[in-house]
Amino acid sequence: MATPTSATSSQPTRTFTNSTGDETLPDEDTSEVTRLFHERLQAWKHAVGYLEEYVTATEKVHHAHGKEYDKVLKTVSHPLKEGHHFDQAVGGIAGMFEAIRSNTQGLSDSHTTTAKQLKSTILPIFERLHTEIKNKSKELLKGAGKGSKAVDKARHSTQKHVEMLGQYTASFDSTGGRLTAAEDPYVLQRGVMHRLHKQIIEENNNRQDLISVQNSFAQFEAHIIQTIQHGMGQFMQVVNTQAEQSKQMYGDMVGKAQQVPLDFEWNGFVQRNNNVLIDPSAPARSVENATFPNQNHRATQPLIAGSLERKGKIMRSYDTNYYVVTPAKFLHEFKTDDDFAKDPTPELSLYLPDCVVGGVNGPKFNVKGKDVSKGKVGNTFSMSHELQFKAHTPQAAQQWWEVIRQAAGQVTGELPEGSTPTSPTESNTTSGTTPLSPVSNEKHVAPIQTQGLPDRTGTGMTTGTTGSTATSAGGPLSAAPASGVEGKTGEY
């Protein structure tokens, strides 16, 4: 009897995808590995079924003596089903069945006692093994098969949102940026990131499930071969009382089975299917490395973003939220800038061309308009509200106000509550400051740095040098705001 070798073997080298970088929607079939393992289990089940048939037929033949051994030979005369899963070289399962065929031909006698022992002792060993393989197949389909369906569902959701992003980014360029809040490419891109995050979690979970199944198959196949060896050993003991010739023939069959190394078939299987099996050492996918169409489109880049405080309507206290002004001229409010915790749907959306913007009073400024985040129906029945904002510093408030003013439909110059108005005469006499314009009632502020800043608002603004202000046909305009956070343009 040959000494069993270790069930460990070299792992396949194929990664989960065929591309060199992470793709948003890989084109591999997530159920391909599951089908391959299911087919292999079917092959093992049929192989064990062959042994069951062999023992059963042998038991019958022992009742009818030598003339019935032709029936035994017929049970193993057909090629193995799914035979391509077995190594055809000498020393494997296919070689073992070839030895069974040749030795069965030489058997000429059997006895009733031997038939009873075969039926009560040997046959149940292979029947239990057959049942184990069936249960393994069901476990595979319910586990890894279910994970593959979840991956396909997540990919479909991501694909649908990516197509929506492509549709409305193209619409943004063709319509001049006139979109609804739900069609804002910035919001759609964040929706893509949210669904892509869920998709990758499902892919990685399914990948880990398949790796676990793949790693367990070597041990399971070793168990199959060990059980076959044990059953054939018991079979030899049953027929050992027969004639010397029969004993030698059965001993040869068992010897061929015992000589199959535990990892012989597995190593051959891995070598023949290394282009399909998963490489466990390949890194898991990550959102940071994933790319998708229109990911960096100019319509998805905010003009300014950061945290502001907004005064509540009921409690009249300030709550801090994350705000963004997009190239589509929307002012969006979010609970957080995290794209992954939940779907980043705006809590509040103001279409700035339809809004009225007041003046700046220290860190405070007001914007009056309708919340259009609920779509066309919600916009029809919504009322205009005056929203009171407060930045962290007066300089930050000025930068937010400048960006919002560029896109706003009307600027009144009205100061937020808490300011103490003075007459133009008193202001000029006591402080020496420039009086408010009687036409626009806008507050004159010190010029900000505009040197080298790009025109990101699409308003036709021109940039000047330090100490100058950008102008348009409607009056003085400031350039795009400078960054409030180091290393992140337009964020606070």
From TrEMBL:
<dbReference type="InterPro" id="IPR011993">
    <property type="entry name" value="PH-like_dom_sf"/>
</dbReference>
<dbReference type="InterPro" id="IPR027267">
    <property type="entry name" value="AH/BAR_dom_sf"/>
</dbReference>
<feature type="domain" description="PH">
    <location>
        <begin position="301"/>
        <end position="409"/>
    </location>
</feature>
<dbReference type="InterPro" id="IPR043453">
    <property type="entry name" value="Slm1_PH"/>
</dbReference>
<feature type="region of interest" description="Disordered">
    <location>
        <begin position="1"/>
        <end position="31"/>
    </location>
</feature>
<feature type="region of interest" description="Disordered">
    <location>
        <begin position="412"/>
        <end position="492"/>
    </location>
</feature>
<feature type="compositionally biased region" description="Low complexity">
    <location>
        <begin position="416"/>
        <end position="435"/>
    </location>
</feature>
<dbReference type="InterPro" id="IPR046868">
    <property type="entry name" value="BAR_4"/>
</dbReference>
<feature type="compositionally biased region" description="Low complexity">
    <location>
        <begin position="457"/>
        <end position="484"/>
    </location>
</feature>
<feature type="compositionally biased region" description="Low complexity">
    <location>
        <begin position="1"/>
        <end position="15"/>
    </location>
</feature>
<dbReference type="Pfam" id="PF20399">
    <property type="entry name" value="PH_20"/>
</dbReference>
<dbReference type="Pfam" id="PF20400">
    <property type="entry name" value="BAR_4"/>
</dbReference>
<dbReference type="InterPro" id="IPR046869">
    <property type="entry name" value="SLM1/RGC1-like_PH"/>
</dbReference>
<protein>
    <submittedName>
        <fullName>PH domain-containing protein</fullName>
    </submittedName>
</protein>
<dbReference type="InterPro" id="IPR001849">
    <property type="entry name" value="PH_domain"/>
</dbReference>
<keyword id="KW-0597">Phosphoprotein</keyword>
